Amino acid sequence: MGQIETLEIRKTIRRRQLREMVPLADSTIYEMEQRGEFPRRFALSPRCIVWDLAEVHAWLLARRATPIRRAQHPDVSKRKSRPVKARDRAQQRA
Fold it and tell me: Are 43 and 75 in contact (CB under 8 A)?
């Protein structure tokens, strides 16, 4: 008892609050957590899942600081289902 431990109590947020801060789908957040690209959730109880607010803020600041490259447009001429129709000859001449 001679040694008193001081614990830092950090604020946590639930899913509803997280969705207000980060407008991503639940499935996207879950996939990013699995890849290590988003702060991990943890359980306070069997039915209460939370995220550390400081970790989410740090993630948002990091995302804002580094630009995200946009995905390239898919080459629709290579798809196997619903192939692109050939252009009209009138359009090809113009």
Answer: no
